[in-house]
Amino acid sequence: MRQLEEIKLAIIGLGYVGLPLAVEFGKRRTVIGFDINQRRIHALAAGHDSTLEVSDDELKQAISLSYTSRLDEVEQCNVFIVTVPTPIDQYKQPDLTPLIKASESIGKVLKRGDIVIYESTVYPGATEEDCVPVLEKVSGLKFNVDFFAGYSPERINPGDKEHRVTTIKKVTSGSTPEVAVLVDALYNQIITAGTYQASSIKVAEAAKVIENTQRDLNIALINELAIIFNRMGIDTEEVLKAAGTKWNFLPFRPGLVGGHCIGVDPYYLTHKAQAIGYHPEIILAGRRLNDSMSAYVASQLIKAMLKRRIHVDGARVLVMGLTFKENCPDLRNTKVVDIVRELTDYNVNVDVYDPWVVAEEAQHEYGLTPISEPSIGAYDGIILAVAHDQFRAMGPANIRLLGKKTHILYDLKYLLNAAETDLRL
Protein backbone atom coordinates (compact mmCIF):
# COMPACT_ATOMS: atom_id res chain seq x y z
CA MET A 1 0.00 0.00 0.00
CA ARG A 2 1.49 3.32 -1.10
CA GLN A 3 1.94 6.30 1.22
CA LEU A 4 0.80 9.83 0.39
CA GLU A 5 4.34 11.13 -0.10
CA GLU A 6 5.10 8.28 -2.53
CA ILE A 7 2.32 9.21 -4.96
CA LYS A 8 3.35 10.10 -8.50
CA LEU A 9 0.21 11.56 -10.02
CA ALA A 10 -1.18 11.54 -13.56
CA ILE A 11 -4.42 13.23 -14.67
CA ILE A 12 -5.95 11.44 -17.67
CA GLY A 13 -8.02 13.90 -19.71
CA LEU A 14 -7.43 17.66 -19.63
CA GLY A 15 -10.85 19.12 -20.39
CA TYR A 16 -13.20 21.19 -18.22
CA VAL A 17 -12.74 18.76 -15.32
CA GLY A 18 -9.19 17.47 -15.62
CA LEU A 19 -7.29 20.68 -16.24
CA PRO A 20 -8.45 22.64 -13.15
CA LEU A 21 -7.69 19.55 -11.06
CA ALA A 22 -4.25 19.13 -12.61
CA VAL A 23 -3.46 22.82 -12.08
CA GLU A 24 -4.38 22.72 -8.39
CA PHE A 25 -2.31 19.59 -7.78
CA GLY A 26 0.47 21.09 -9.90
CA LYS A 27 0.79 23.97 -7.44
CA ARG A 28 1.69 21.49 -4.69
CA ARG A 29 3.19 18.32 -6.20
CA THR A 30 4.59 16.89 -9.42
CA VAL A 31 1.77 16.06 -11.85
CA ILE A 32 1.68 14.83 -15.43
CA GLY A 33 -1.38 15.86 -17.42
CA PHE A 34 -2.23 13.44 -20.23
CA ASP A 35 -4.59 14.03 -23.15
CA ILE A 36 -4.85 12.35 -26.57
CA ASN A 37 -5.59 15.72 -28.21
CA GLN A 38 -2.18 16.97 -29.29
CA ARG A 39 -3.51 20.43 -30.18
CA ARG A 40 -4.80 20.71 -26.62
CA ILE A 41 -1.42 19.67 -25.21
CA HIS A 42 0.44 22.20 -27.38
CA ALA A 43 -1.93 25.03 -26.36
CA LEU A 44 -1.58 24.23 -22.65
CA ALA A 45 2.19 23.95 -22.93
CA ALA A 46 2.13 27.39 -24.58
CA GLY A 47 0.23 28.68 -21.55
CA HIS A 48 -3.40 29.03 -22.70
CA ASP A 49 -6.62 27.16 -21.89
CA SER A 50 -9.20 27.48 -24.69
CA THR A 51 -12.04 26.47 -22.35
CA LEU A 52 -11.27 29.58 -20.24
CA GLU A 53 -11.73 27.56 -17.04
CA VAL A 54 -8.14 28.29 -16.07
CA SER A 55 -6.50 31.66 -16.70
CA ASP A 56 -3.04 32.03 -18.20
CA ASP A 57 -1.77 33.28 -14.83
CA GLU A 58 -3.15 30.20 -13.06
CA LEU A 59 -1.42 27.93 -15.56
CA LYS A 60 1.87 29.64 -14.74
CA GLN A 61 1.32 29.00 -11.03
CA ALA A 62 1.18 25.22 -11.61
CA ILE A 63 4.97 25.01 -11.67
CA SER A 64 5.07 21.23 -11.13
CA LEU A 65 2.58 20.38 -13.91
CA SER A 66 3.72 19.04 -17.27
CA TYR A 67 1.66 17.96 -20.29
CA THR A 68 1.92 15.03 -22.67
CA SER A 69 0.02 12.98 -25.23
CA ARG A 70 2.48 10.09 -24.97
CA LEU A 71 1.43 7.17 -22.82
CA ASP A 72 5.02 6.11 -22.07
CA GLU A 73 5.57 9.41 -20.25
CA VAL A 74 2.99 8.53 -17.57
CA GLU A 75 4.42 5.03 -17.06
CA GLN A 76 6.38 6.28 -14.04
CA CYS A 77 3.14 7.37 -12.28
CA ASN A 78 1.42 5.21 -9.67
CA VAL A 79 -1.89 7.06 -9.16
CA PHE A 80 -4.06 7.87 -12.17
CA ILE A 81 -7.11 10.17 -11.98
CA VAL A 82 -9.45 9.70 -14.95
CA THR A 83 -11.47 12.76 -16.01
CA VAL A 84 -12.67 11.88 -19.51
CA PRO A 85 -16.18 12.69 -20.80
CA THR A 86 -19.12 10.31 -20.32
CA PRO A 87 -21.67 11.37 -22.95
CA ILE A 88 -24.83 9.72 -24.26
CA ASP A 89 -25.30 8.42 -27.81
CA GLN A 90 -28.01 9.31 -30.33
CA TYR A 91 -30.36 6.83 -28.61
CA LYS A 92 -29.80 8.52 -25.22
CA GLN A 93 -27.85 5.55 -23.93
CA PRO A 94 -24.61 5.90 -21.92
CA ASP A 95 -21.52 6.00 -24.09
CA LEU A 96 -18.64 4.62 -22.03
CA THR A 97 -16.24 4.58 -24.99
CA PRO A 98 -13.93 7.36 -23.68
CA LEU A 99 -13.90 5.73 -20.23
CA ILE A 100 -13.12 2.26 -21.60
CA LYS A 101 -10.38 3.58 -23.89
CA ALA A 102 -8.83 5.51 -20.99
CA SER A 103 -8.93 2.32 -18.89
CA GLU A 104 -7.25 0.38 -21.71
CA SER A 105 -4.48 2.98 -21.91
CA ILE A 106 -3.91 2.93 -18.16
CA GLY A 107 -3.94 -0.86 -18.17
CA LYS A 108 -0.90 -0.81 -20.45
CA VAL A 109 1.18 1.03 -17.84
CA LEU A 110 -0.47 -0.25 -14.65
CA LYS A 111 1.88 -1.71 -12.02
CA ARG A 112 1.54 -3.50 -8.71
CA GLY A 113 0.36 -1.17 -5.97
CA ASP A 114 -1.06 1.45 -8.40
CA ILE A 115 -4.41 3.19 -7.83
CA VAL A 116 -6.86 4.32 -10.53
CA ILE A 117 -9.36 6.98 -9.43
CA TYR A 118 -12.33 7.81 -11.67
CA GLU A 119 -14.07 11.19 -11.64
CA SER A 120 -16.26 10.82 -14.73
CA THR A 121 -20.01 10.68 -14.07
CA VAL A 122 -21.32 7.10 -14.36
CA TYR A 123 -24.15 4.90 -13.10
CA PRO A 124 -23.64 3.04 -9.81
CA GLY A 125 -21.40 0.04 -10.41
CA ALA A 126 -19.66 1.25 -13.57
CA THR A 127 -16.23 1.66 -11.97
CA GLU A 128 -16.04 -1.89 -10.62
CA GLU A 129 -18.20 -3.62 -13.24
CA ASP A 130 -17.10 -1.90 -16.46
CA CYS A 131 -13.74 -0.20 -15.90
CA VAL A 132 -11.92 -2.51 -13.49
CA PRO A 133 -12.32 -5.62 -15.72
CA VAL A 134 -10.64 -3.68 -18.55
CA LEU A 135 -7.77 -2.74 -16.27
CA GLU A 136 -7.42 -6.38 -15.20
CA LYS A 137 -7.55 -7.73 -18.76
CA VAL A 138 -5.01 -5.32 -20.24
CA SER A 139 -2.59 -5.29 -17.29
CA GLY A 140 -2.86 -8.94 -16.27
CA LEU A 141 -3.09 -7.78 -12.65
CA LYS A 142 -5.75 -8.66 -10.07
CA PHE A 143 -8.07 -6.03 -8.59
CA ASN A 144 -7.67 -5.29 -4.87
CA VAL A 145 -4.65 -7.59 -4.79
CA ASP A 146 -2.23 -6.03 -7.29
CA PHE A 147 -3.94 -2.69 -7.95
CA PHE A 148 -6.77 -0.64 -6.47
CA ALA A 149 -9.47 1.83 -7.48
CA GLY A 150 -11.24 4.89 -6.20
CA TYR A 151 -14.08 7.15 -7.25
CA SER A 152 -14.42 10.88 -6.55
CA PRO A 153 -17.12 12.51 -8.66
CA GLU A 154 -16.32 15.79 -10.37
CA ARG A 155 -18.37 18.84 -9.42
CA ILE A 156 -17.03 21.37 -11.90
CA ASN A 157 -19.48 24.11 -12.92
CA PRO A 158 -18.19 25.56 -16.24
CA GLY A 159 -17.94 29.33 -16.30
CA ASP A 160 -18.44 29.63 -12.53
CA LYS A 161 -15.56 31.67 -11.09
CA GLU A 162 -16.92 31.52 -7.54
CA HIS A 163 -17.40 27.77 -7.09
CA ARG A 164 -14.04 26.34 -8.13
CA VAL A 165 -12.62 22.84 -7.76
CA THR A 166 -10.97 23.72 -4.45
CA THR A 167 -14.02 25.43 -2.91
CA ILE A 168 -16.56 22.67 -3.58
CA LYS A 169 -16.75 19.84 -1.04
CA LYS A 170 -15.39 16.63 -2.58
CA VAL A 171 -16.88 13.17 -2.20
CA THR A 172 -14.21 10.46 -2.15
CA SER A 173 -14.15 6.66 -1.99
CA GLY A 174 -11.85 3.67 -2.39
CA SER A 175 -12.04 -0.02 -3.20
CA THR A 176 -10.64 -0.96 0.22
CA PRO A 177 -10.78 0.94 3.54
CA GLU A 178 -7.07 1.70 3.33
CA VAL A 179 -7.33 3.00 -0.24
CA ALA A 180 -10.35 5.10 0.71
CA VAL A 181 -8.30 6.84 3.40
CA LEU A 182 -5.39 7.46 0.99
CA VAL A 183 -7.67 8.82 -1.76
CA ASP A 184 -9.35 11.12 0.74
CA ALA A 185 -5.99 12.36 2.03
CA LEU A 186 -4.79 13.02 -1.53
CA TYR A 187 -7.75 15.25 -2.36
CA ASN A 188 -7.51 16.98 1.00
CA GLN A 189 -4.20 18.41 -0.18
CA ILE A 190 -6.04 20.76 -2.54
CA ILE A 191 -9.73 20.88 -1.52
CA THR A 192 -10.08 23.77 0.94
CA ALA A 193 -13.83 23.09 1.33
CA GLY A 194 -13.04 19.64 2.74
CA THR A 195 -13.95 16.13 1.69
CA TYR A 196 -16.64 13.57 2.46
CA GLN A 197 -15.52 9.95 2.48
CA ALA A 198 -18.34 7.77 1.14
CA SER A 199 -18.76 4.23 2.43
CA SER A 200 -18.18 2.65 -0.98
CA ILE A 201 -17.46 3.42 -4.62
CA LYS A 202 -21.07 2.65 -5.56
CA VAL A 203 -22.40 5.12 -2.99
CA ALA A 204 -20.11 7.83 -4.39
CA GLU A 205 -21.21 7.03 -7.95
CA ALA A 206 -24.88 7.13 -6.97
CA ALA A 207 -24.47 10.41 -5.07
CA LYS A 208 -23.08 12.10 -8.17
CA VAL A 209 -25.67 10.86 -10.62
CA ILE A 210 -28.62 11.94 -8.46
CA GLU A 211 -27.28 15.48 -7.95
CA ASN A 212 -28.14 16.46 -11.49
CA THR A 213 -31.15 14.15 -11.75
CA GLN A 214 -32.73 16.11 -8.90
CA ARG A 215 -32.04 19.43 -10.64
CA ASP A 216 -33.36 18.06 -13.92
CA LEU A 217 -36.67 17.07 -12.35
CA ASN A 218 -37.04 20.40 -10.56
CA ILE A 219 -36.48 22.31 -13.81
CA ALA A 220 -38.91 19.98 -15.62
CA LEU A 221 -41.60 20.88 -13.09
CA ILE A 222 -41.00 24.60 -13.61
CA ASN A 223 -40.98 24.15 -17.40
CA GLU A 224 -44.33 22.40 -17.22
CA LEU A 225 -45.70 25.16 -15.00
CA ALA A 226 -44.46 27.74 -17.54
CA ILE A 227 -46.35 25.98 -20.34
CA ILE A 228 -49.52 25.93 -18.22
CA PHE A 229 -49.21 29.57 -17.18
CA ASN A 230 -48.48 30.68 -20.75
CA ARG A 231 -51.76 29.12 -21.87
CA MET A 232 -53.53 30.97 -19.06
CA GLY A 233 -51.93 34.29 -19.95
CA ILE A 234 -50.07 34.48 -16.62
CA ASP A 235 -46.45 35.66 -16.46
CA THR A 236 -44.41 32.75 -15.08
CA GLU A 237 -41.70 34.98 -13.62
CA GLU A 238 -44.27 36.95 -11.63
CA VAL A 239 -45.69 33.69 -10.25
CA LEU A 240 -42.23 32.43 -9.25
CA LYS A 241 -41.38 35.72 -7.56
CA ALA A 242 -44.58 35.57 -5.53
CA ALA A 243 -44.08 31.91 -4.60
CA GLY A 244 -40.46 32.65 -3.73
CA THR A 245 -41.52 34.75 -0.76
CA LYS A 246 -41.99 31.46 1.14
CA TRP A 247 -38.74 30.49 2.85
CA ASN A 248 -38.61 26.91 1.54
CA PHE A 249 -39.67 27.50 -2.08
CA LEU A 250 -36.82 26.42 -4.39
CA PRO A 251 -35.66 29.17 -6.81
CA PHE A 252 -35.68 27.23 -10.09
CA ARG A 253 -36.50 28.94 -13.41
CA PRO A 254 -37.80 27.53 -16.70
CA GLY A 255 -35.48 27.10 -19.65
CA LEU A 256 -33.44 24.83 -21.86
CA VAL A 257 -31.67 21.96 -20.12
CA GLY A 258 -28.48 21.08 -21.96
CA GLY A 259 -24.83 20.80 -21.07
CA HIS A 260 -22.62 17.94 -20.04
CA CYS A 261 -24.37 17.18 -16.74
CA ILE A 262 -28.06 17.92 -16.14
CA GLY A 263 -29.18 16.91 -19.63
CA VAL A 264 -27.03 13.75 -19.63
CA ASP A 265 -26.58 12.28 -16.15
CA PRO A 266 -30.21 11.16 -15.61
CA TYR A 267 -29.90 8.83 -18.62
CA TYR A 268 -27.04 7.03 -16.88
CA LEU A 269 -29.26 6.36 -13.88
CA THR A 270 -32.30 5.34 -15.94
CA HIS A 271 -30.12 3.01 -18.02
CA LYS A 272 -28.97 1.18 -14.90
CA ALA A 273 -32.48 1.13 -13.46
CA GLN A 274 -33.85 -0.50 -16.60
CA ALA A 275 -30.96 -2.97 -16.64
CA ILE A 276 -32.05 -4.24 -13.22
CA GLY A 277 -35.69 -4.45 -14.27
CA TYR A 278 -37.17 -1.16 -13.03
CA HIS A 279 -38.76 1.42 -15.30
CA PRO A 280 -38.09 4.91 -13.83
CA GLU A 281 -41.24 6.76 -14.85
CA ILE A 282 -40.73 10.13 -13.11
CA ILE A 283 -37.10 10.61 -14.17
CA LEU A 284 -37.83 9.76 -17.81
CA ALA A 285 -40.95 11.96 -17.84
CA GLY A 286 -38.83 14.89 -16.67
CA ARG A 287 -36.26 14.17 -19.35
CA ARG A 288 -38.90 14.01 -22.09
CA LEU A 289 -40.38 17.33 -21.01
CA ASN A 290 -37.04 19.11 -20.81
CA ASP A 291 -35.92 17.68 -24.16
CA SER A 292 -39.14 19.01 -25.73
CA MET A 293 -38.62 22.64 -24.67
CA SER A 294 -36.68 23.66 -27.79
CA ALA A 295 -39.58 22.63 -30.00
CA TYR A 296 -41.96 24.47 -27.67
CA VAL A 297 -39.90 27.67 -27.90
CA ALA A 298 -39.79 27.50 -31.70
CA SER A 299 -43.55 26.94 -31.96
CA GLN A 300 -44.28 29.83 -29.58
CA LEU A 301 -42.18 32.17 -31.70
CA ILE A 302 -43.87 31.04 -34.93
CA LYS A 303 -47.35 31.53 -33.43
CA ALA A 304 -46.44 35.00 -32.20
CA MET A 305 -45.11 35.95 -35.65
CA LEU A 306 -48.30 34.75 -37.32
CA LYS A 307 -50.42 36.80 -34.92
CA ARG A 308 -48.41 39.89 -35.93
CA ARG A 309 -48.93 38.94 -39.60
CA ILE A 310 -45.21 38.38 -40.08
CA HIS A 311 -44.65 36.07 -43.05
CA VAL A 312 -42.93 32.97 -41.64
CA ASP A 313 -41.71 31.30 -44.85
CA GLY A 314 -38.29 32.84 -45.51
CA ALA A 315 -38.38 35.02 -42.38
CA ARG A 316 -35.12 35.97 -40.67
CA VAL A 317 -34.61 35.14 -36.99
CA LEU A 318 -31.64 36.01 -34.79
CA VAL A 319 -30.76 33.57 -32.01
CA MET A 320 -28.59 35.30 -29.43
CA GLY A 321 -26.44 32.71 -27.69
CA LEU A 322 -25.38 29.17 -28.60
CA THR A 323 -23.51 27.86 -25.56
CA PHE A 324 -25.37 25.69 -23.05
CA LYS A 325 -25.01 28.35 -20.33
CA GLU A 326 -23.99 31.95 -19.86
CA ASN A 327 -20.49 33.40 -19.88
CA CYS A 328 -18.58 30.32 -20.99
CA PRO A 329 -17.64 28.83 -24.39
CA ASP A 330 -18.97 25.34 -23.60
CA LEU A 331 -21.06 23.97 -26.48
CA ARG A 332 -21.55 20.44 -25.16
CA ASN A 333 -25.12 19.22 -25.58
CA THR A 334 -26.49 22.74 -26.05
CA LYS A 335 -30.23 22.73 -26.69
CA VAL A 336 -30.09 26.05 -28.53
CA VAL A 337 -29.10 23.99 -31.56
CA ASP A 338 -32.48 22.25 -31.40
CA ILE A 339 -34.26 25.62 -31.58
CA VAL A 340 -32.26 26.47 -34.70
CA ARG A 341 -33.17 23.14 -36.30
CA GLU A 342 -36.85 23.52 -35.41
CA LEU A 343 -36.99 26.99 -36.96
CA THR A 344 -35.16 25.76 -40.03
CA ASP A 345 -37.91 23.17 -40.48
CA TYR A 346 -40.35 26.10 -40.78
CA ASN A 347 -38.12 27.43 -43.62
CA VAL A 348 -36.92 30.26 -41.41
CA ASN A 349 -33.44 31.69 -42.05
CA VAL A 350 -31.60 31.67 -38.72
CA ASP A 351 -28.54 33.68 -37.74
CA VAL A 352 -26.75 32.62 -34.56
CA TYR A 353 -24.71 35.20 -32.67
CA ASP A 354 -22.54 34.30 -29.68
CA PRO A 355 -19.39 36.26 -28.77
CA TRP A 356 -18.22 33.40 -26.52
CA VAL A 357 -18.15 30.74 -29.22
CA VAL A 358 -15.25 29.72 -31.43
CA ALA A 359 -16.84 29.55 -34.89
CA GLU A 360 -14.74 26.58 -35.99
CA GLU A 361 -15.90 24.56 -32.98
CA ALA A 362 -19.57 25.33 -33.66
CA GLN A 363 -19.13 24.30 -37.27
CA HIS A 364 -17.37 21.08 -36.28
CA GLU A 365 -19.86 20.10 -33.58
CA TYR A 366 -23.16 21.19 -35.13
CA GLY A 367 -22.58 22.37 -38.70
CA LEU A 368 -23.40 25.94 -37.63
CA THR A 369 -21.30 29.01 -38.31
CA PRO A 370 -22.17 31.87 -35.96
CA ILE A 371 -22.18 35.36 -37.44
CA SER A 372 -19.56 37.83 -36.24
CA GLU A 373 -22.06 40.67 -35.82
CA PRO A 374 -25.86 40.88 -36.23
CA SER A 375 -27.30 43.32 -38.75
CA ILE A 376 -29.34 46.35 -37.65
CA GLY A 377 -33.02 46.21 -38.58
CA ALA A 378 -32.74 42.81 -40.26
CA TYR A 379 -34.78 40.36 -38.21
CA ASP A 380 -38.42 39.31 -37.99
CA GLY A 381 -37.73 37.51 -34.73
CA ILE A 382 -35.08 37.70 -32.01
CA ILE A 383 -34.55 35.00 -29.37
CA LEU A 384 -32.51 35.77 -26.26
CA ALA A 385 -31.38 32.18 -25.68
CA VAL A 386 -28.36 32.57 -23.36
CA ALA A 387 -27.85 35.14 -20.60
CA HIS A 388 -24.36 36.33 -21.56
CA ASP A 389 -23.26 39.51 -19.82
CA GLN A 390 -22.73 41.13 -23.23
CA PHE A 391 -26.42 40.70 -24.06
CA ARG A 392 -27.49 42.02 -20.67
CA ALA A 393 -25.31 45.09 -21.20
CA MET A 394 -26.93 45.82 -24.58
CA GLY A 395 -30.28 46.54 -22.97
CA PRO A 396 -33.71 46.23 -24.61
CA ALA A 397 -33.42 49.31 -26.85
CA ASN A 398 -30.23 48.15 -28.57
CA ILE A 399 -31.54 44.61 -28.93
CA ARG A 400 -34.75 45.94 -30.48
CA LEU A 401 -32.69 47.88 -33.05
CA LEU A 402 -31.69 44.53 -34.56
CA GLY A 403 -35.30 43.79 -35.47
CA LYS A 404 -37.41 45.07 -38.34
CA LYS A 405 -40.14 47.63 -37.69
CA THR A 406 -42.45 44.71 -36.82
CA HIS A 407 -40.74 41.85 -35.05
CA ILE A 408 -41.03 39.49 -32.08
CA LEU A 409 -38.55 39.58 -29.18
CA TYR A 410 -38.58 36.33 -27.19
CA ASP A 411 -36.68 36.35 -23.89
CA LEU A 412 -35.91 32.83 -22.62
CA LYS A 413 -33.66 33.95 -19.76
CA TYR A 414 -35.55 36.83 -18.10
CA LEU A 415 -32.84 39.27 -19.14
CA LEU A 416 -35.53 41.89 -19.75
CA ASN A 417 -38.59 43.03 -17.89
CA ALA A 418 -41.95 41.72 -19.04
CA ALA A 419 -42.86 45.08 -20.58
CA GLU A 420 -39.66 45.14 -22.63
CA THR A 421 -40.24 41.89 -24.50
CA ASP A 422 -43.00 40.24 -26.52
CA LEU A 423 -42.62 36.70 -25.22
CA ARG A 424 -41.13 35.06 -22.12
CA LEU A 425 -41.04 31.48 -20.94
Order of helices and strands: EHEHHEEHEHEEHEHHHHHEHEHEHEE
> What fraction of residues sit in β-strands?
5-15%
Q: Biggest sheet, in brief? A: 6 strands, parallel
Structural shape: elongated
Distance between the termini: 56 Å
Biggest β-sheet: strands ordered side by side in the sheet: 3-2-1-4-5-6
pLDDT averaged over residues: 95
Give the low-pLDDT segments: none
Sum up the structure in keywords.
five-stranded parallel β-sheet; 425 residues; alpha/beta; 14 helices; six-stranded parallel β-sheet; 13% strand
What are the SSEs and their pairings?
Blueprint: E1 9-12, H1 18-26, E2 31-34, H2 38-45, H3 56-61, E3 65-68, E4 79-82, H4 97-109, E5 115-118, H5 126-139, E6 148-151, E7 170-172, H6 177-188, E8 195-197, H7 201-232, H8 236-243, H9 265-275, H10 281-291, H11 293-307, E9 316-320, H12 336-345, E10 349-353, H13 359-366, E11 379-384, H14 389-400, E12 403-411, E13 423-424
Parallel strand pairs: 1-2, 1-4, 2-3, 4-5, 5-6, 7-8, 9-10, 9-11, 11-12, 12-13
